[in-house]
Amino acid sequence: MADIIARLGQLEASASYGLTLPDGRHVFLVRVHDQVSAFVNRCPHQGVPLNLPEGDFLEAGGELIQCGMHGALFLPETGECVFGPCQGRFLEALPISIDAEGNIHLAGE
């Protein structure tokens, strides 16, 4: 199985977590309604990192991913932009798996 990139315990309900993979890619994980998703940390509008000033990736309500630069909003399940300058485009999703111990792995890596 692939290396552990994070642990489920690092993501409380409606939380996000940014990290750098061993290959240098900047990615983030989000957990909304007990569903965990992973994406490359790059807005499809101008290629900038999505982090909000506090280092978070979710808007204040904890329901949508938000670009800290443009305010674009993305669905955490699919990465689709539903509001903002890149509406209809998608974040680059990464396949993940979670084992019985709550370890998060990149699937297929």
From TrEMBL:
<protein>
    <submittedName>
        <fullName>Rieske (2Fe-2S) protein</fullName>
    </submittedName>
</protein>
<dbReference type="GO" id="GO:0046872">
    <property type="term" value="F:metal ion binding"/>
</dbReference>
<feature type="domain" description="Rieske">
    <location>
        <begin position="3"/>
        <end position="87"/>
    </location>
</feature>
<keyword id="KW-0411">Iron-sulfur</keyword>
<keyword id="KW-0408">Iron</keyword>
<keyword id="KW-0001">2Fe-2S</keyword>
<dbReference type="InterPro" id="IPR036922">
    <property type="entry name" value="Rieske_2Fe-2S_sf"/>
</dbReference>
<dbReference type="InterPro" id="IPR017941">
    <property type="entry name" value="Rieske_2Fe-2S"/>
</dbReference>
<keyword id="KW-0479">Metal-binding</keyword>
<dbReference type="GO" id="GO:0051537">
    <property type="term" value="F:2 iron, 2 sulfur cluster binding"/>
</dbReference>
<dbReference type="Pfam" id="PF00355">
    <property type="entry name" value="Rieske"/>
</dbReference>
